[in-house]
């Protein structure tokens, strides 16, 4: 009996998170705190007695480095890892690189809130959460889930919005519910799945 293990972890704090900038597909590294969070994620998983057969991450440095730091704590450097832009953060388009306060001054607080918190309204030149789900979900169904169901213990290090896509399917959430789901940086969420891909158990290790 395999335990069909799937662990999701949002990357640690990035330099741009620290500076209150819209990041999206831009590629800043982890901040000092982010490095600590990534290492702590690995220690947390090790304390749970977990090891992995395969890992997935985005093409962005902050997610890849989080994965590498966590795996080093577990003692699994060199784990087979697949990187794909399907797991990238939501693309914030014209907002990318802007300070969130400056964006509010330029477009107004209400408009920026709509871009950030609506399900299907994208910022100029960018993606809505619905758009992000449209690329992340097929990748999950085709590339990640089959291995989990075969018993491959799987770790996914990615981003708040791309992970929301996976969580929406796993937990059968509505668009309204997924908008309210916050994911702490560097805090693993451990799922064990049934043979039909539904969730058998969930353990959220957010502090």
TrEMBL record:
Record-linked CDD domains: HP_PGM_like (cd07067)
Domain of life, source organism: Bacteria
GO-annotated biological processes: gluconeogenesis; glycolytic process
Signal peptide: none
Catalytic class of the enzyme: isomerase
PROSITE patterns: PG_MUTASE
Keywords of the record: Gluconeogenesis, Glycolysis, Isomerase
Complex and partners: Homodimer.
Role according to the record: Catalyzes the interconversion of 2-phosphoglycerate and 3-phosphoglycerate.
Stated name of the protein: 2,3-bisphosphoglycerate-dependent phosphoglycerate mutase
Organism: Bradyrhizobium retamae
């Amino acid at each position: 009996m395999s335990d069909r293990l799937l662990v999701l972890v949002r990357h640690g704090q990035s330099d741009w998170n620290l500076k209150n900038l819209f990041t999206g597909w831009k590629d800043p590294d982890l901040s000092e705190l982010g490095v600590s969070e990534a290492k702590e994620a690995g220690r947390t998983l090790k304390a749970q007695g977990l090891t992995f057969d395969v890992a997935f991450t985005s093409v962005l440095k902050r997610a890849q480095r989080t994965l590498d730091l966590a795996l080093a704590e577990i003692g699994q450097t060199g784990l087979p890892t697949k990187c794909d832009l399907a797991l990238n953060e939501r693309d914030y388009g014209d907002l990318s690189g802007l300070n969130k306060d400056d964006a509010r001054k330029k477009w107004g607080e209400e408009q920026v809130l709509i871009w950030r918190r609506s399900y299907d309204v994208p910022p100029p030149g960018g993606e809505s959460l619905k758009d992000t789900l449209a690329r992340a979900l097929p990748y999950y169904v085709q590339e990640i889930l089959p291995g989990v169901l075969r018993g491959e213990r799987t770790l996914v290090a990615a981003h708040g919005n791309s992970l929301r896509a996976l969580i929406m399917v796993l937990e059968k959430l509505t668009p309204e519910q997924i908008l309210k789901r916050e994911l702490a940086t560097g805090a693993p969420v451990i799922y064990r799945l049934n043979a039909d891909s539904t969730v058998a158990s969930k353990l959220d290790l957010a502090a």
